[in-house]
Protein backbone atom coordinates (compact mmCIF):
# COMPACT_ATOMS: atom_id res chain seq x y z
CA UNK A 1 0.00 0.00 0.00
CA UNK A 2 2.82 2.41 0.84
CA UNK A 3 4.31 1.98 -2.64
CA UNK A 4 0.94 2.77 -4.23
CA UNK A 5 0.65 5.92 -2.11
CA UNK A 6 4.16 6.88 -3.25
CA UNK A 7 3.18 6.37 -6.89
CA UNK A 8 -0.12 8.19 -6.46
CA UNK A 9 1.26 11.22 -4.63
CA UNK A 10 4.94 12.10 -4.67
CA UNK A 11 6.46 10.68 -7.85
CA UNK A 12 3.86 11.85 -10.41
CA UNK A 13 3.81 15.27 -8.75
CA UNK A 14 7.59 15.61 -8.97
CA UNK A 15 7.49 14.46 -12.60
CA UNK A 16 4.81 17.03 -13.46
CA UNK A 17 6.94 19.77 -11.90
CA UNK A 18 10.22 18.66 -13.51
CA UNK A 19 10.20 17.37 -17.08
CA UNK A 20 13.67 15.81 -16.71
CA UNK A 21 12.46 13.54 -13.87
CA UNK A 22 9.52 12.34 -15.94
CA UNK A 23 11.78 11.50 -18.89
CA UNK A 24 14.00 9.36 -16.65
CA UNK A 25 11.04 7.56 -15.05
CA UNK A 26 9.44 7.04 -18.46
CA UNK A 27 12.64 5.48 -19.83
CA UNK A 28 12.74 3.12 -16.85
CA UNK A 29 9.16 2.04 -17.54
CA UNK A 30 9.98 1.54 -21.24
CA UNK A 31 12.91 -0.73 -20.36
CA UNK A 32 10.87 -2.75 -17.88
CA UNK A 33 8.00 -3.17 -20.34
CA UNK A 34 10.37 -4.41 -23.07
CA UNK A 35 11.47 -7.20 -20.75
CA UNK A 36 8.00 -7.97 -19.40
CA UNK A 37 5.74 -7.50 -22.43
CA UNK A 38 2.84 -9.59 -21.17
CA UNK A 39 3.04 -8.86 -17.44
CA UNK A 40 -0.25 -7.26 -16.43
CA UNK A 41 1.04 -6.00 -13.07
CA UNK A 42 3.72 -3.96 -14.88
CA UNK A 43 1.15 -2.54 -17.29
CA UNK A 44 -1.15 -1.67 -14.41
CA UNK A 45 1.61 0.17 -12.52
CA UNK A 46 2.48 2.17 -15.65
CA UNK A 47 -1.20 3.04 -16.20
CA UNK A 48 -1.71 4.19 -12.61
CA UNK A 49 1.46 6.27 -12.69
CA UNK A 50 0.62 7.91 -16.04
CA UNK A 51 -2.94 8.64 -14.96
CA UNK A 52 -1.70 10.34 -11.77
CA UNK A 53 0.98 12.20 -13.75
CA UNK A 54 -1.49 13.56 -16.32
CA UNK A 55 -3.79 14.65 -13.50
CA UNK A 56 -0.94 16.51 -11.78
CA UNK A 57 0.12 18.01 -15.11
CA UNK A 58 -3.41 19.28 -15.68
CA UNK A 59 -3.35 21.01 -12.27
CA UNK A 60 -0.11 22.75 -13.23
CA UNK A 61 -1.15 23.73 -16.75
CA UNK A 62 -1.26 27.45 -15.88
CA UNK A 63 2.21 27.31 -14.29
CA UNK A 64 4.08 25.34 -16.95
CA UNK A 65 4.27 25.49 -20.71
CA UNK A 66 6.11 22.23 -21.46
CA UNK A 67 4.63 20.78 -24.68
CA UNK A 68 3.50 17.14 -24.74
CA UNK A 69 6.06 16.42 -27.45
CA UNK A 70 8.86 17.24 -25.00
CA UNK A 71 7.40 14.84 -22.42
CA UNK A 72 6.80 11.98 -24.89
CA UNK A 73 9.59 12.50 -27.48
CA UNK A 74 9.63 8.87 -28.69
CA UNK A 75 5.87 8.49 -29.09
CA UNK A 76 4.35 8.74 -32.59
CA UNK A 77 3.23 12.37 -32.67
CA UNK A 78 0.08 11.64 -34.67
CA UNK A 79 -1.14 9.40 -31.82
CA UNK A 80 0.07 11.47 -28.86
CA UNK A 81 -2.77 13.94 -28.35
CA UNK A 82 -5.55 11.45 -29.30
CA UNK A 83 -4.30 8.93 -26.72
CA UNK A 84 -3.38 11.35 -23.94
CA UNK A 85 -6.85 12.93 -24.19
CA UNK A 86 -8.93 11.81 -21.20
CA UNK A 87 -12.31 10.17 -21.66
CA UNK A 88 -13.91 12.94 -19.61
CA UNK A 89 -12.60 15.49 -22.12
CA UNK A 90 -14.64 14.04 -24.98
CA UNK A 91 -18.42 13.55 -25.39
CA UNK A 92 -19.34 9.90 -24.91
CA UNK A 93 -21.08 9.89 -28.29
CA UNK A 94 -17.68 10.50 -29.93
CA UNK A 95 -15.83 7.65 -28.20
CA UNK A 96 -16.55 4.99 -30.84
CA UNK A 97 -15.43 7.19 -33.74
CA UNK A 98 -12.28 8.15 -31.82
CA UNK A 99 -11.48 4.51 -31.03
CA UNK A 100 -12.06 3.43 -34.62
CA UNK A 101 -9.58 6.11 -35.72
CA UNK A 102 -7.02 4.96 -33.12
CA UNK A 103 -7.43 1.34 -34.19
CA UNK A 104 -7.02 2.19 -37.87
CA UNK A 105 -3.92 4.32 -37.22
CA UNK A 106 -2.24 1.62 -35.13
CA UNK A 107 -3.16 -1.07 -37.64
CA UNK A 108 -1.53 0.89 -40.48
CA UNK A 109 1.58 1.28 -38.33
CA UNK A 110 1.84 -2.48 -37.74
CA UNK A 111 1.18 -3.25 -41.41
CA UNK A 112 4.06 -0.98 -42.44
CA UNK A 113 6.31 -2.83 -40.00
CA UNK A 114 5.24 -6.27 -41.27
CA UNK A 115 5.68 -5.33 -44.94
CA UNK A 116 9.43 -4.92 -44.38
CA UNK A 117 9.87 -8.23 -42.56
CA UNK A 118 10.36 -10.29 -45.73
CA UNK A 119 13.29 -8.30 -47.16
CA UNK A 120 16.79 -9.16 -45.88
CA UNK A 121 18.80 -6.29 -47.42
CA UNK A 122 20.80 -4.13 -45.01
CA UNK A 123 18.82 -0.97 -45.76
CA UNK A 124 15.55 -2.82 -45.26
CA UNK A 125 16.84 -4.35 -42.03
CA UNK A 126 17.50 -0.85 -40.73
CA UNK A 127 14.03 0.27 -41.78
CA UNK A 128 12.57 -2.84 -40.15
CA UNK A 129 14.32 -2.08 -36.86
CA UNK A 130 12.97 1.46 -36.99
CA UNK A 131 9.52 0.04 -37.72
CA UNK A 132 9.73 -2.29 -34.71
CA UNK A 133 10.74 0.63 -32.48
CA UNK A 134 7.88 2.74 -33.83
CA UNK A 135 5.31 0.00 -33.14
CA UNK A 136 6.71 -0.58 -29.65
CA UNK A 137 6.60 3.14 -28.85
CA UNK A 138 3.00 3.32 -30.10
CA UNK A 139 2.09 0.31 -27.94
CA UNK A 140 3.89 1.79 -24.92
CA UNK A 141 1.81 4.95 -25.27
CA UNK A 142 -1.35 2.81 -25.55
CA UNK A 143 -0.37 1.00 -22.33
CA UNK A 144 0.16 4.35 -20.62
CA UNK A 145 -3.24 5.59 -21.85
CA UNK A 146 -5.13 2.32 -21.43
CA UNK A 147 -8.32 4.19 -20.48
CA UNK A 148 -9.08 4.06 -24.22
CA UNK A 149 -8.59 0.28 -24.26
CA UNK A 150 -11.06 -0.09 -21.40
CA UNK A 151 -13.52 2.14 -23.24
CA UNK A 152 -13.18 -0.15 -26.26
CA UNK A 153 -13.94 -3.22 -24.12
CA UNK A 154 -17.04 -1.55 -22.73
CA UNK A 155 -18.27 -0.56 -26.19
CA UNK A 156 -17.79 -4.14 -27.40
CA UNK A 157 -20.57 -5.15 -25.01
CA UNK A 158 -23.12 -3.13 -27.00
CA UNK A 159 -21.55 -3.62 -30.45
CA UNK A 160 -23.01 -5.77 -33.20
CA UNK A 161 -20.97 -8.14 -35.39
CA UNK A 162 -20.81 -5.49 -38.10
CA UNK A 163 -19.06 -2.82 -36.00
CA UNK A 164 -16.91 -4.71 -33.48
CA UNK A 165 -13.91 -5.25 -35.80
CA UNK A 166 -11.83 -2.11 -35.08
CA UNK A 167 -12.47 -2.31 -31.32
CA UNK A 168 -11.55 -6.00 -31.23
CA UNK A 169 -8.33 -5.35 -33.15
CA UNK A 170 -7.35 -2.57 -30.72
CA UNK A 171 -7.96 -4.85 -27.72
CA UNK A 172 -5.96 -7.68 -29.31
CA UNK A 173 -3.06 -5.36 -30.19
CA UNK A 174 -2.97 -4.14 -26.58
CA UNK A 175 -2.52 -7.73 -25.36
CA UNK A 176 -0.34 -8.88 -28.29
CA UNK A 177 1.77 -6.01 -29.67
CA UNK A 178 4.17 -8.29 -31.53
CA UNK A 179 2.95 -10.52 -34.34
CA UNK A 180 5.58 -13.25 -34.27
CA UNK A 181 4.36 -16.18 -36.35
CA UNK A 182 1.13 -14.27 -37.01
CA UNK A 183 0.34 -14.79 -33.32
CA UNK A 184 -1.81 -11.65 -33.09
CA UNK A 185 -3.96 -12.81 -36.01
CA UNK A 186 -4.62 -16.09 -34.20
CA UNK A 187 -5.42 -14.26 -30.97
CA UNK A 188 -7.86 -12.03 -32.85
CA UNK A 189 -9.71 -15.16 -34.02
CA UNK A 190 -9.83 -16.44 -30.40
CA UNK A 191 -11.07 -13.05 -29.13
CA UNK A 192 -13.87 -12.90 -31.69
CA UNK A 193 -14.84 -16.46 -30.85
CA UNK A 194 -15.03 -15.55 -27.15
CA UNK A 195 -17.07 -12.42 -27.96
CA UNK A 196 -19.54 -14.56 -29.96
CA UNK A 197 -19.92 -17.00 -27.05
CA UNK A 198 -20.38 -14.17 -24.54
CA UNK A 199 -22.97 -12.38 -26.66
CA UNK A 200 -24.93 -15.61 -27.13
CA UNK A 201 -24.78 -16.40 -23.41
CA UNK A 202 -25.91 -12.96 -22.24
CA UNK A 203 -28.79 -12.92 -24.74
CA UNK A 204 -30.18 -16.12 -23.19
CA UNK A 205 -33.14 -15.49 -20.90
CA UNK A 206 -34.31 -19.07 -20.30
CA UNK A 207 -32.55 -21.30 -17.81
CA UNK A 208 -30.54 -23.49 -17.57
CA UNK A 209 -27.69 -21.81 -19.43
CA UNK A 210 -26.40 -23.64 -22.54
CA UNK A 211 -23.66 -25.94 -21.27
CA UNK A 212 -21.83 -26.05 -24.61
CA UNK A 213 -21.41 -22.25 -24.73
CA UNK A 214 -20.19 -22.12 -21.14
CA UNK A 215 -17.70 -24.92 -21.73
CA UNK A 216 -16.43 -23.33 -24.95
CA UNK A 217 -15.72 -20.13 -23.03
CA UNK A 218 -13.91 -21.99 -20.25
CA UNK A 219 -11.88 -23.87 -22.88
CA UNK A 220 -10.78 -20.58 -24.47
CA UNK A 221 -9.63 -19.41 -21.03
CA UNK A 222 -7.53 -22.56 -20.56
CA UNK A 223 -4.17 -23.40 -22.09
CA UNK A 224 -4.22 -26.20 -24.64
CA UNK A 225 -1.26 -28.22 -25.93
CA UNK A 226 -2.68 -28.35 -29.47
CA UNK A 227 -2.58 -24.59 -30.02
CA UNK A 228 -1.49 -21.38 -28.30
CA UNK A 229 -4.08 -20.43 -25.73
CA UNK A 230 -6.13 -17.28 -26.04
CA UNK A 231 -5.22 -14.45 -23.72
CA UNK A 232 -7.15 -15.24 -20.52
CA UNK A 233 -7.11 -11.62 -19.36
CA UNK A 234 -8.44 -10.36 -22.69
CA UNK A 235 -11.38 -12.77 -22.52
CA UNK A 236 -11.91 -12.23 -18.79
CA UNK A 237 -12.02 -8.47 -19.36
CA UNK A 238 -14.76 -9.01 -21.96
CA UNK A 239 -16.65 -11.34 -19.61
CA UNK A 240 -16.65 -8.91 -16.67
CA UNK A 241 -17.72 -5.99 -18.86
CA UNK A 242 -20.59 -8.06 -20.27
CA UNK A 243 -21.65 -8.95 -16.71
CA UNK A 244 -21.61 -5.28 -15.66
CA UNK A 245 -22.96 -3.46 -18.72
CA UNK A 246 -25.09 -5.89 -20.74
CA UNK A 247 -28.86 -5.50 -20.33
CA UNK A 248 -29.17 -8.87 -18.62
CA UNK A 249 -30.68 -9.36 -15.17
CA UNK A 250 -28.19 -9.17 -12.30
CA UNK A 251 -28.97 -12.75 -11.30
CA UNK A 252 -28.35 -13.94 -14.86
CA UNK A 253 -25.08 -12.01 -15.18
CA UNK A 254 -23.93 -13.26 -11.78
CA UNK A 255 -24.65 -16.86 -12.74
CA UNK A 256 -22.62 -16.61 -15.95
CA UNK A 257 -19.67 -14.86 -14.28
CA UNK A 258 -19.71 -17.20 -11.31
CA UNK A 259 -19.81 -20.35 -13.46
CA UNK A 260 -16.99 -19.32 -15.81
CA UNK A 261 -14.72 -17.90 -13.09
CA UNK A 262 -15.23 -20.94 -10.88
CA UNK A 263 -14.35 -23.37 -13.67
CA UNK A 264 -11.35 -21.34 -14.86
CA UNK A 265 -10.06 -20.49 -11.37
CA UNK A 266 -9.45 -16.82 -12.27
CA UNK A 267 -10.83 -15.39 -9.01
CA UNK A 268 -8.15 -12.78 -8.33
CA UNK A 269 -8.06 -11.66 -11.95
CA UNK A 270 -11.84 -11.16 -12.04
CA UNK A 271 -11.69 -9.17 -8.79
CA UNK A 272 -8.95 -6.97 -10.28
CA UNK A 273 -11.01 -6.19 -13.40
CA UNK A 274 -14.03 -5.30 -11.25
CA UNK A 275 -11.90 -2.99 -9.08
CA UNK A 276 -10.56 -1.29 -12.19
CA UNK A 277 -14.11 -0.74 -13.46
CA UNK A 278 -15.15 0.68 -10.09
CA UNK A 279 -12.22 3.13 -10.23
CA UNK A 280 -13.22 4.25 -13.74
CA UNK A 281 -16.83 4.70 -12.64
CA UNK A 282 -15.72 6.87 -9.72
CA UNK A 283 -13.60 8.95 -12.11
CA UNK A 284 -16.59 9.44 -14.41
CA UNK A 285 -14.96 7.61 -17.31
CA UNK A 286 -17.48 4.80 -17.76
CA UNK A 287 -19.94 4.98 -20.64
CA UNK A 288 -23.20 4.78 -18.71
CA UNK A 289 -26.31 6.89 -18.33
CA UNK A 290 -27.14 5.13 -15.07
CA UNK A 291 -24.01 5.20 -12.91
CA UNK A 292 -25.92 4.14 -9.79
CA UNK A 293 -27.17 0.94 -11.48
CA UNK A 294 -23.65 0.11 -12.70
CA UNK A 295 -22.17 0.79 -9.26
CA UNK A 296 -24.67 -1.57 -7.61
CA UNK A 297 -23.94 -4.31 -10.17
CA UNK A 298 -20.19 -3.97 -9.64
CA UNK A 299 -20.62 -4.22 -5.86
CA UNK A 300 -22.87 -7.27 -6.17
CA UNK A 301 -20.43 -9.03 -8.50
CA UNK A 302 -17.51 -8.14 -6.22
CA UNK A 303 -19.35 -9.71 -3.29
CA UNK A 304 -19.96 -12.84 -5.35
CA UNK A 305 -16.27 -13.16 -6.25
CA UNK A 306 -15.26 -12.54 -2.61
CA UNK A 307 -17.57 -15.33 -1.39
CA UNK A 308 -16.26 -17.65 -4.11
CA UNK A 309 -12.66 -16.96 -3.05
CA UNK A 310 -13.51 -17.65 0.57
CA UNK A 311 -15.30 -20.88 -0.33
CA UNK A 312 -12.41 -22.12 -2.50
CA UNK A 313 -9.72 -21.37 0.11
CA UNK A 314 -8.75 -24.21 2.46
CA UNK A 315 -10.17 -23.79 5.94
CA UNK A 316 -7.67 -22.53 8.51
CA UNK A 317 -6.92 -24.64 11.55
Automatic annotation (TrEMBL):
<protein>
    <recommendedName>
        <fullName>Fanconi anemia group C protein</fullName>
    </recommendedName>
</protein>
<dbReference type="GO" id="GO:0034599">
    <property type="term" value="P:cellular response to oxidative stress"/>
</dbReference>
<dbReference type="Pfam" id="PF02106">
    <property type="entry name" value="Fanconi_C"/>
</dbReference>
<dbReference type="GO" id="GO:0036297">
    <property type="term" value="P:interstrand cross-link repair"/>
</dbReference>
<dbReference type="InterPro" id="IPR000686">
    <property type="entry name" value="FANCC"/>
</dbReference>
<dbReference type="GO" id="GO:0006289">
    <property type="term" value="P:nucleotide-excision repair"/>
</dbReference>
<dbReference type="GO" id="GO:0043240">
    <property type="term" value="C:Fanconi anaemia nuclear complex"/>
</dbReference>
